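Figure 6 in text form: structure in, sequence out.
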């Protein structure tokens, strides 16, 4: 079922995005439900693959904060494998080939295996999750993701008693992703979560947004979404998930350990060394708005960090 946010600061259905967009998306949801998941709207691959999906489970009404437009989401963002600028993914990610695709799951698990994309799409019913997205750089968005809980995959592979973390690897192919030839980061891009964070029902693997297949600039064909953390924690174009006993060093921790910590929970009280995190600019808006602790999901996730010093564990 769709996770509800009971935080008083959380979205509630009063201000809806444009009616034409809203009704169009609702029409898609009704049609997808009626078809029993027969066709995946928006499939536009150079190498088409079977579009059969499990039944799509519609989300609840849109939140009090208007959705960020699809055009904005696909034309503004960070995906350094395709270039250093905000418009680089939108201009360059067309070279990404998302079929065939598989994700290898290994490490401290009893049942290591490689999932192809269609197997992943059948792990659990797809759900719409309307989440805030907060970038560490100070901009934010509201995104209608489509995906399933990361916990569903974790249960299938049965972590051992030694598993305390999982590390997610992104694709790093210099043919498809020419900017991995530059030492911007230690490629492939790697992010990680503590196991209890990964098992939390808010953490999902996203395969779509706005009722269509996940666009290439947004991390197609499958990416992590952890809404209470800064966006760089949500690895894109995932090809490997490795379960570990020891906390790994992630790509941004290696690049700038004083700026990007392992947890990266959204925290307006802890500034980045080069700017304040107290406010953010929502894409499409002019004025900045206050940033919410844990990006507005404190009621659900703050207990994960009980007793921790969130200034030290940034």
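Output sequence:
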């Amino acid at each position: 079922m769709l996770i509800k946010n009971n935080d008083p600061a959380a979205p509630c259905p009063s201000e809806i995005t444009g009616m034409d967009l809203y009704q169009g998306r609702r029409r898609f949801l009704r049609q997808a439900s009626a078809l029993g998941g027969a066709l995946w709207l928006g499939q536009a691959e150079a190498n088409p693959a079977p579009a059969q999906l499990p039944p799509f489970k519609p989300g609840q009404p849109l939140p009090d904060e208007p959705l960020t437009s699809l055009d904005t989401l696909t034309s503004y963002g960070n995906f350094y494998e395709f270039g250093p600028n905000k418009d680089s993914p939108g201009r360059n990610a067309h070279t990404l080939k998302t079929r065939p695709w598989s994700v290898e799951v290994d490490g401290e698990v009893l049942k290591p295996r490689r999932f192809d994309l269609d197997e992943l799409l059948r792990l659990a019913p797809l759900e719409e999750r309307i989440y805030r997205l907060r970038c560490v750089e100070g901009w934010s968005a509201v995104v209608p993701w489509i995906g399933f809980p990361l916990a569903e995959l974790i249960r299938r592979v049965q972590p051992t008693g030694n598993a305390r973390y999982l590390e997610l690897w992104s694709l790093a192919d210099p043919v498809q992703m020419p900017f991995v030839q530059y030492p911007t980061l230690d490629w492939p891009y790697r992010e990680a979560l503590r196991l209890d964070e990964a098992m939390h029902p808010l953490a999902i693997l996203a395969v779509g947004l706005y009722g269509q297949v996940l666009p290439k600039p947004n991390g197609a064909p499958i990416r992590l979404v952890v809404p209470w953390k800064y966006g760089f924690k949500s690895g894109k174009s995932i090809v490997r998930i490795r379960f570990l006993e020891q906390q790994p060093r992630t790509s941004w921790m290696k690049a700038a350990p004083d700026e990007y910590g392992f947890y990266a929970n959204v925290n307006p009280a802890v500034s980045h060394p080069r700017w304040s995190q107290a406010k953010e600019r929502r894409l499409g808006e002019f004025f900045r708005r206050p940033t919410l602790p844990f990006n507005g999901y404190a009621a659900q996730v703050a207990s994960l960090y009980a007793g921790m010093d969130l200034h030290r564990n940034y």
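Caption detail: Helices lie at 19-35, 70-75, 88-92, 117-121, 150-157, 195-199, 251-255, 298-301.
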